[in-house]
Specification:
Layout lengths: L15 E7 L2 E7 L8 E7 L2 E13 L8 E7 L20 H14 L9 E11 L6 H15 L9 E8 L2 E4 L3 H6 L2 E7 L4 E11 L1 H29 L13 H19 L4 H19 L10 H18 L15 E5 L7 E7 L2 E10 L5 E2 L8 E2 L1 E6 L16 H14 L12 E10 L4 H15 L9 E9 L5 E5 L3 H6 L2 E7 L4 E8 L6 H26 L13 E6 L5 H5 L4 H10 L2 E4 L4 E6 L2 H15 L7 E10 L2 E7 L2 E6 L20 E9 L5 E4 H13 L6
Parallel strand pairs: 5-6, 16-17, 27-29
Antiparallel strand pairs: 1-2, 2-3, 3-4, 4-6, 7-8, 7-9, 9-10, 10-21, 11-12, 12-13, 13-17, 14-15, 18-19, 18-20, 20-21, 22-24, 23-24, 25-26, 25-28, 26-27, 28-29
Helix pairs in contact: 1-2, 1-8, 2-4, 5-6, 5-7, 8-9, 13-14
Amino acid sequence: MALEFASKKETFPRYKVFETELAGRPFVVETGKMCGLSNGSCLVRYGETAVLCNVTMSDKPRDGIDFFPLSVDFEEKLYSVGRIPGSFMRREGQPSLPAVLASRLIDRPIRPLFPSDLRNDVVVTCTVMSVDYDCSPEVTAMIGVSACLSYSDIPWAGPIGCMEVGYCDGKIVMNPNQEQKKTSQMDVTVAATMGKVVMIEAGAKEIPDEIMYQGIVEAHEEIKKQVAFINQIVAEIGKPKFEYEHADFNQELFDDIVANFMDEAKAAMDTDDKNVREQRWNAMIDHWHDKYLEQYPDMDKYLEEFTYKFQKKIVKAWLLEGHRVDGRAKNEIRPLAAEVGVLPRVHGSGLFTRGQTQVLSVCTLNTLSAAQKLDTIWEETEKRYMHHYNFPGYSVGEARGARSVNRREKGHGALAERALEPVIPSEEEFPYAIRVVSEVLSSNGSTSQGSICGSTLALMDAGVPIKAPVAGISCGLIQDDDGSFTTFIDIQGVEDFHGEMDFKVAGTKKGITAIQMDLKNDGLSHAIIKEALEITRDARYAILDEIMLPCIAAPRPEVSKYAPKMITVKIDPDKIREVIGKGGSVIQKITAESGAQIDIEDDGTIHIASPNAEACEIAKKMIDTIVFVPEVGSLYYGKVVRILQFGAFVELAPGKDGMVHISKLANHRVAKVEDVINIGDMIWVKVTDIDEKGRVNLSYKDALREIEEKKARGEIVK
């Protein structure tokens, strides 16, 4: 029986292609062909970068939660760059750090635009399927997600757009290409709605605040075009928004609690000690139980949300009045302390304290072979400077055991790494792999910025010749219903929790090295951004001048005695084979006899490392001997090792000798070599010629003449 295929061919009647231009490159959104069961899906192409974006939402809310369950996954597929994964299974495993950071980058601007009382699970998946390094997959993914959420039936107050900003040759560049990124002085990602900026993520090479602000403003203008483009898509294929089940909340009970317990709540909040605050608040909750539990037996399920809304009400009112929970002025930083050399045997350590926030950073130095190998879709394959951040339960007084590193810890570590990377010396200047670990000892807000300050201290204590010290500070925000706003410096935990912004800025006295902006509102005006940059600049200057530099004014002149000592030598790449030897026999012998570790690069750079400086020198001499090539015209002091009738052989270096012909021993005729020199004599010789077979010809008489001439000129012969 013949099958009839003609009538069953898929024609994709809902397939739509929307095209625009982004920074001079084509940007295409395709819908209606793939992933037909998602709430919203599109394949986004930017240049030759392609990202498949999908958004899905559960039909019913999740029971027993008081938060919005959003999950964002940025999936890097190594086939997108023509690579096979390097793992044993040869398939992608857990997300790499760049993938985690990309997930966080997308999460931060979209999360505040969802309804606060939505309890349905929402999952955002960005699958990177092709990568063109001129066209950022993160930017592509974020715009794609914005388009999916906007035209889908998921309730969301977008759309947003996204741009990368560079600074090349004194000019601001939008979405810089691969070559421009190599020379760019800043790497800024901006996300925004039509009216407000909703996310800033920046790394920079000590960029002045004014240039950073200008770049953000110009990016926002370009983003407005993207938002208009997505609105066109919504107008054509947009779905009606889902009528969701609003989270249960007892407004009547909450209003009654606020009316009856406002004075007690204010008294509980009015302290700079978070433990005292929590004790007072828990005692007040006992009073709520005494008064309301009989009438409202289910009140406990609202307690966390009651606490959040009640505290936010108090904190917001106080901040708008210029009053802070701990009694500080809005531009006042908490008490600070800095200390170095805290741990005796580590290579470098720094303890930074800001109020109840305290971070201990530890620096470890190793050979370049300890650099981290990366298996990602990005160009970077190795990372020499690493920064890790740990946030244990005891830092917030929780009885919580240690678990695997979460996304927040990875993100905070990456932020500190980004802030400090611009001041790390080059490999040529300081041939070490560098790892810094920031241990949060206690947390009451702004631990990521504390880790930046503590890590600067640790690096300087370790003798790392950083270009300039870096300090970090955060800025908060409270907005009134009429649009007026108040910014305040150095936010503590309760202000971060109940405030609307955590604007983190790190930098040197010269300029900004990193920015990370987290929001809980629908975005920031340009005026707020400008003010935040101004007050954080003044604050980081004060931290550097008054606290950090008085603790340690400059990097130590020498690395720790417990750190490996490093010598770098450069040899002819053609000589690498001789140093390694057959099957690695020569380099193994050098390592065994000297006790030093040897790393050889393809360009002939050799790094010699050992805790013992003498071992480094022994290894260097052995390598120098192997690669030694005499230079014509140079003087050498060598040992006579063999005498023949026609001349003598002089050892210039172990295993390297040359011959002095009898005619080159003296200015007069020499009948017998032994009349001038004997075996074992140490003599000066001059290289006169190296023949095509590599044989070195020497002259004793020419060497003596040159030495006499040098002495006559007052020069010292070594």
